[in-house]
Specification:
Elements lengths: L2 H13 L1 H6 L4 H9 L2 H13 L2 H11 L5 H24 L6 H19 L2 H6 L5 H20 L9 H31 L4 H29 L1
Length: 224
């Protein structure tokens, strides 16, 4: 991955502005999930994660400077635990949060992780926040973001728990696939002499993408 690929993330976010502003789901996905069984929930969970720019940008920031698979596994597990807990809790307990605000916080999580990668907190405040705690906490907000998607559907109470679990399994499967692709690209990039020179600019781009996401979601909130 190079700076050009990071810039492509920003372009893709800009292209997806109508979806971000509408904060909805497609009619075909809604019909598919409302009429489908466990496989439909599994598929749409994976689809949401693979196409979720906010989740992918956060994951990219999290693993950016992680070189050992053990560390990658530990951080990704914390993120998965966080978003699994609030996804299940939000839907099963019918805890409703404003979709625009929670997605703005998810966008801020991207900004936060990029700033962390840039060493901004040590430079500005002479303190290094606990990175694992931050990933877990932001994972909780990402889970509420996933919950707001499911709450857009007219979900039948019959087999609801099984369907939500299937959706979450799909999310984890999509996360595994996306993470695998990111790790392969990162491994190739890290072998180049340009990595350390481009790392700073790349995290600035990631941070910019996060600010774009925050801006669009807050715009949607105030114009709603």
């Amino acid at each position: 991955m190079t700076n050009r690929l990071c810039c492509l993330f920003l372009l893709l976010v800009a292209i997806s502005v109508p979806d971000l502003a509408a904060h909805g789901v497609s009619a075909s996905d809604k019909a598919f999930m409302e009429q489908g069984g466990l496989i439909a929930f599994l598929y749409l969970g994976a689809k949401h994660m693979v196409t979720g720019y906010d989740h992918l940008l956060f994951l990219l920031g999290v693993i950016f400077f992680l070189y050992r698979l053990r560390d990658v596994g530990a951080y990704v597990t914390l993120f998965a635990v966080g978003h699994s807990v609030t996804l299940l809790l939000g839907v099963l307990s019918d805890i409703r949060v404003n979709a625009y605000l929670v997605d703005a916080i998810i966008g801020f999580s991207v900004v936060y992780k990029a700033l962390d990668n840039l060493g901004a907190f040590r430079r500005w405040f002479s303190v290094q926040p606990n990175t694992k705690a931050a990933v877990l906490i932001f994972g909780l907000f990402h889970g509420f973001g996933l919950a707001t998607k499911l709450q857009d559907f007219a979900l039948p109470r019959e087999s609801l728990v099984a369907k939500i679990v299937a959706f979450n399994v799909g999310v984890e499967a999509g996360q595994f696939l996306a993470l695998g692709a990111i790790l392969i690209a990162m491994a190739y990039w890290r072998r180049t002499t340009a990595f350390h020179r481009q790392a700073f600019a790349s995290n600035v781009v990631i941070m910019t993408c996060g600010f774009v996401l925050v801006g669009y979601q807050l715009t949607g909130y105030f114009l709603e």
